[in-house]
Design a protein that fits this description.
The structure holds 2 protein chains of 2 kinds. By secondary structure, chain A is of the alpha+beta class. Chain A is built from 3 helices and 7 strands; from the N terminus they run αβαββββββα. Chain A is globular. Chain A: InterPro entries: Polyketide_cyclase/dehydratase, START-like_dom_sf.
Amino acid sequence: MRLFRTAMLQVLLVLGAASAGAHGPTPQKVEESIAVAAPPEKVWAVVKNFDSLVSWNPLVETSMGTGGNEPGAERVVVLRSGGQLKDSLDEYLEDEMSYSYRLDTPDVDAFPVSFYSSTLAVKPGADGGSEVTWDARLYRADTGNFPSETQNDQAAIDAVTKFYRAGLEELKKKAEQ
Amino acid sequence: MIAAPRGVAGRFGALAVAAAILAALISAALSAHTQAAAPRLFVTNQAAGQVVVIDTATHEQLATVELAPGPAVIAASPDGRTLYVTHPEIGKIDVLDARAPDRPRSLSVAGTPFGIAVGERGRLFVSDWNRDLLSVIDSATGKTVAEIAVGRAPAHVALDPRLRRAYVANREDDSITVVDMDRLTAVATVKVGKAPFALAVSPTGDRVYVANVRSGDVSVVDAASLEIRNTVRTGSMPYGVAVSPTGARVFVANQQSGTVKMLDAASLEALQRTKVGKYPETVAILPDGRRLYVVNWMAGDISVLDGETGREVKRIPVGEGIRGLAVAASD
């Protein structure tokens, strides 16, 4: 029965109904940040377009979007390692240099997370520079009660952390040029 | 010094003394009352497997109760004496005595219990997100009295003792199910916004406020007609909702926005938008309406908001992984 349920859950995940039941297990958090020696406006210019992720995250192959930077806009993030994630934009605050989005369609074999909601923000940092924060609330790939090692909480945290670090370091490089 | 007629002075003096004594008595009674009745916050820490107890008078932590892993949602009984905590990942409900919370009793239940609300005589209404049910459980015996089919991925549950209804937010069906609390049957399904998660009933039972995570709004359901009276945009990913004891104000925590919006219930206009900690989720209001408490999940702290102005007055650090929140009086 348990196996059956897990199998059914996988089917649901593949069908894209990932957040079904995702609120049961314990949500996990990732909070990453980086100091950039460039003014916030310059850093924001690199990241401000929701579909421009490809230009500052080396793990991303393409990030085609529709809807611009309006709430409800979508982007399909194709990963270099294979697989694709569909994100949708929830909130866009130009004045605060911040936007929030969520994972709409996961790809748990390529990226072991069934759901995340995420916020990227550029804030004034030390000496006229910037601080970029990127955080997420996420659920593991297998939201059943007996996940495998490749689909458990740690696997999810590791995947998101790696993705965020790669993006933030590339962003720093680009903005400081 | 002016000499007043003796009788009058004596009478005034006696009155003054009596008044002073009365004032002192009232003051003592009031402060004793305040001490005895200061409600407590019970906060689940899902990551640490704990419930943290906080005094609302001092905002100090009174106790930390160790529980089984993954406590999620917590609800108080109507008399405030007992608290119930769901563990969706292990199929358990813990029962805590508000006055002696460190000796919890544990009920084993089927499925994945998540949302919970407490009726009279310890009858529990518990959503099962994996099996799409509302389970009705007698907490004294631990027996399941009924399993009522609801929509997909049911999240929070709210009761209305006047109309004898339980309302369940069906996150993956964009609806709420209305359940008859006595006959234990589903009587209606109402379509709301996208991905309803939390909900709250007004004190008179005339309205149900449903927070829709995906559509970023609150559906205002007229309880009599079960029609949508209004839909109010509140912010990104509303995850928590509470109504003031007078019914005049509605508070909504928007997780993505990191804000709490205070709405005027009559006009449904936003009166205040307050930045709180990162990823706010559960909200609860004191019985006197003076304070609203907001669990900031990512920040690991609780924002204390003024119930009148909706502004933040304090932040209480609690710990990483806090999730659910209930208010219970301690008398």
